[in-house]
Amino acid sequence: MSFRRAYLAHAAVALAIGLATTNALAADATATVSFGQWMSSPPLDRYPDFGGSPTTNVHALTPNVVTIKAGGSVNFIVSGLHNIAIYDDGVQPAEINIALTTPTTSPNPPVLPIINDPNRRIYRGVDPSLQARDRVEVVNFSKPGTYLVICGVLPHFQEGMYGYVRVLP
After folding, report:
1. Over the stretch 45-65, which tens digit does the pLDDT of each residue have?
2. Which of 3, 31, 47, 136 has the most CB atoms in a 10 Å sphere around its CB?
3. Is 156's pLDDT higher than 90?
4. Do the domain assignments include residue 84?
5. Domain range for residue 126?
6. What is the mean pLDDT of residues 126-144?
7. Which residues contact residue 140 at a Cβ distance below 8 angstroms, ignoring those fewer than 6 apart?
8. Beta-sheet pairing, 65-79 with 28-38
9. Domain contains 23
10. What one-character-per-residue DSSP string does 83-119 give?
11. Which long-range contacts (CB under 8 A, 24 or more apart) does 25-30 make?
12. Does 17 map to a domain?
């Protein structure tokens, strides 16, 4: 085998390995999203059981977009009073009808409106007023698409607390 043919053969193998590695890194079976985050500046002392307040929690999804493979799941690590709502492939934030709401069921913390737009909603998490402020909700995505994930707590959604899950075949 000539030097040139050997070089091309090695280059082709390296390219194939590189593409396979890139595809493997582009989407995993699982992803993790921080759904709200407790602030540390100014210092926050939650001991022994401070549930937090709107001024002690960052109302954001981090990262804002995750990519997984079909059949995979997303671990939503929830910090604070948040409600996960997921809408089907292609739904955009402007399509959410924020006039449709329901109150939380516990008076403590105070009643907050939870978005209750069922149109193309594929998942809605638990009532945050009845749950611990910190929890994990794991959601499976069986079909490819780009899914809108919002915080169903109306003021949080209005602040821009939403993101996307990209699901590859």
Report:
1. 988 878 778 789 999 999 999
2. 31
3. yes
4. yes
5. 28-168
6. 92
7. 71, 72, 73
8. parallel
9. no
10. -EEEE-TT--GGGS-TT-EEE-S-SSSPP-EEE---T
11. 26/67, 26/168, 27/67, 27/68, 27/69, 27/72, 27/166, 27/168, 28/68, 28/69, 28/72, 29/68, 29/69, 29/71, 29/72, 29/73, 30/68, 30/72, 30/73, 30/74, 30/75
12. no
At 109, the amino acid letter reads P
The answer to whether residue 40 is domain-embedded is yes
Closest to 169 (Cα-Cα) out of 1, 3, 23, 17: 23
pLDDT at 34 over 60: yes
What's the half-sphere exposure (Cβ side, CA atoms, 13 Å) at 84?
27
Number of domains in the chain: 1
DSSP annotation of 127 reads -
- Cα gap 41→71, rounded to integer Å: 39
Closest to 165 measured CA to CA, from 32, 11, 36: 32
Is the peptide bond prior to 113 cis by the omega test (within 30 degrees of 0)? no
| Cα separation, 156 vs 83, whole angstroms | 10
β-pair type (134-141, 145-151): unpaired
CATH number of the domain to which 75 belongs = 2.60.40.420
pLDDT at 111: 67
pLDDT at 110: 65
User: Is residue 29 scored above 90 in pLDDT?
Assistant: yes
Within 8 A by CB and 6+ apart from 118, the residues are: 100
